[in-house]
Amino acid sequence: MSATIIESLLDKTKDFSLEETLAFIANEYPGKVIFSTSFGQEDQVITDFIAKSNQDISIFTLDTGRLFQETYDVFHKTLKKYKKQIEVYFPEAASVENLLKQKGPNSFYDSVENRKECCFIRKVVPLRKALAGNSVWITGLRAEQSENRNDLQLFEYDGGFEIIKFNPLLKWTLEEVETYLSENNVPQNALHKQGFVSIGCAPCTRAIFPGEDIRAGRWWWESSHKECGLHSAKKE
Ligand code: SF4
To answer: Is the pLDDT of residue 39 over 60?
Structure first.
């Protein structure tokens, strides 16, 4: 069933521009199209497109409680520029309180299991809440961000979250993203100028060195698993 829907979406939108595809999905799934932003470069491109499109597409962000001040700064600038509401989802207070009581504030450095537990509490559970009741989840995924993303398509079915994913920037290069941001005067996280490319929580993100993989600055102390569970749910 989901495979048929995905094939149909891919076929119907194959000659559409990004603006046309946004309009198409907003019309096909009224009130059930949602975009998750963490205010990174790709997300800011999509916010700009959505705000200019005037389509019925809502935007939300996950506030893990461990974000950089620079991320809150670009969040604030984005609200001011576009005057579009961005809903915020927090982790369950009791889960965070229990985690810190049991393991302290920085348990994610101790083991992969602890890191995944923190990501689950602070990201995956709130994400599940944000996506509930929606039909299409727009993401800022790009294929060149990670080897795991090479086989993604513009539309995917995410069996983990039981939702259709739309990845409009899948084939964009970083250069195209940066050009769009600069030509359209889109607010950007100040950390990008300091060598940060993919920006998540402050204790789990560092700048990358020239030549390093784009995701090398995320959970750099781990040898693999450069995902937090948001985009690694199984496909159907
Ligand atoms: Fe926790 Fe780090 Fe995951 Fe943020 S990125 S939720 S601080 S483990």
So the answer is: yes
| pTM across the whole model | 0.92
| 201 Cβ inside 6 Å of ligand 1 | yes
Nearest CA to ligand 1 atom 3: 119
Domain ranges across the chain: 2-204
Query: Is 228 annotated in the active site?
Result: yes
ipTM associated with this complex: 0.99
Q: Which fold has domain 2-204?
A: Rossmann fold (3.40.50)
- For 228, list phi and psi in degrees, rounded to 5: -110, 5
- Nearest residue (CA) to ligand 1, atom 4: 201
For the record, the structure tokens of 33 come out as 């199209």
